Amino acid sequence: MKKAPFTLMAFLLAFSSLLSNTPCETSLESENSFLGTWTIDIVGGGVAWLNVHEEQGVLDGELLWIGGSVLPVSDIYVVDEHTLVVTRTSEQELKTTSGEARTHIRTWTLRITKKNDAIAGTMTGPTWGRNGEELSYFTGRRLPAVGQAPDVSALKFGKPIKLFNGKDMTGWRPIDSNMANGFKVVNGTMQNDPVQPENGEHINYGNLRTDQEFDDFNLKLEVNVPKGNNSGVYLRGLYEIQVVDSYGLPLDSHNMGALYSRVTPSENAEKPAGEWQTMDITLVDRHVTVILNGKKIIDNAPAKGPTGGAISSDVFAPGPIYLQGDHGTVAYRNIVLTPIL
Predict the structure, then answer these.
(1) 304 and 323 fall within a common domain
(2) What's the predicted TM-score (pTM) here?
(3) What is the CATH number of the domain that holds 321?
(4) What backbone phi and psi angles, to 5 degrees, belong to 188?
(5) 3-state helix, strand, coil in the chain (%, to 5)
């Protein structure tokens, strides 16, 4: 079950406890005790993920921060055995007072304090897309290695669950009730149409989730993506299987059927925009298999951490199926989940 978001007070208590329990001696942990992957909860909502690794004595890392892709960090260094500093950069176009767009390289800094397998820290940097400074607090924990791939041929399944009845939205609800909902039933399909007004303020559309939460499973569905549109199917609210019009494009981890930004399909199996496509997805023991239109494009690949847009950092907890609704027009039908026993 998804945990309640951390409050600022909870963060401060956790942070002060971590610091007060940290011994002053420098011999208890090695300077590389940050090596590994860390799953992170951000105060106020949002999930992040950090991978720290070392090659020939040089520290490096990759970072996911709330949304988007897993990206290389700009710099990463150990201050002492309990403190790590990570920076990431991004190019942004900022408008001058005359309306001219200029590209700036902007930097965000994470300062992380560790005690055993727990971390707490802050991220500071410019407010996205404008002047000003943001300060975010976060806590996290070390993520165990994914482990060996399971034997999918030996899996045992429970009774199939029909997640969409083709008549109404029973069993589904918006993730954020304060955001607009573009999903509705049209001719027996679940269709998302995030229409924007021709004139007026931009409408922020939200995502849709199942009321039920699940452990490991097989999920089958059909999806229709109009030209130029984009959506996503999230497994247990953690891992996005990309849904996008990518027909004819080179292989990429952001294409149809990919484990978004993490695993690239082995071949192009998508159909042209506007055609119904089948997805057969298995999630078991943190490994993902995807069969798109009858072709296996991801074969029991490890899911090393949450993808952008995840609603939970806990990779071991049950979670919902959720459909991305803030990107474009898309239709789903015949959504059936079969639990793995």
Answers:
(1) yes
(2) 0.89
(3) 2.60.120.560
(4) 80, 5
(5) 5, 50, 50
